[in-house]
């Protein structure tokens, strides 16, 4: 059962863990909903999958294989939101350094400069919250927040001690602040050569935030 007011639908939403069989739908939603609306991608002129080469696809594949990525589905089975995530360990963290030509990826890595979260006491597993999006027609219903909470709950069950993400838009920042995440580093995007921050003047700050698990979700 569903109804529609304007573009916003009230169709019931179901949540499930993403698997490799969901990759095509995830890729489509990334192309249609995440990249064209993400401030950093807009600033860098990287709002299509082609601009990233194979790098973004590699991360999406890693996320859907991780067991800690969530999808939001309509009752008819349509994917309308995702929270792409994966787990880092001290061993895999050594492989994370960016070799991409993507300006977006280079900026995201710069936000971690000088930060080694595995030096913290008892930290052996970290949930990396890579990307979250909800289809524009389904906004304003708390879906993004639910995706994040459900992802964190699974990561806690898998023994993660921390959760981290890079925030490049105000709305996501509010969600993570409510969940108790703390800012580790801040980056003024207007200082990065190659970014046209005049396209979205209100979204020029980026934050690397960390939450100690378990969180009160």
UniProtKB/TrEMBL annotation:
<protein>
    <recommendedName>
        <fullName>N-acetyltransferase domain-containing protein</fullName>
    </recommendedName>
</protein>
<dbReference type="GO" id="GO:0008080">
    <property type="term" value="F:N-acetyltransferase activity"/>
</dbReference>
<feature type="domain" description="N-acetyltransferase">
    <location>
        <begin position="13"/>
        <end position="214"/>
    </location>
</feature>
<dbReference type="InterPro" id="IPR000182">
    <property type="entry name" value="GNAT_dom"/>
</dbReference>
<dbReference type="InterPro" id="IPR016181">
    <property type="entry name" value="Acyl_CoA_acyltransferase"/>
</dbReference>
<dbReference type="Pfam" id="PF00583">
    <property type="entry name" value="Acetyltransf_1"/>
</dbReference>
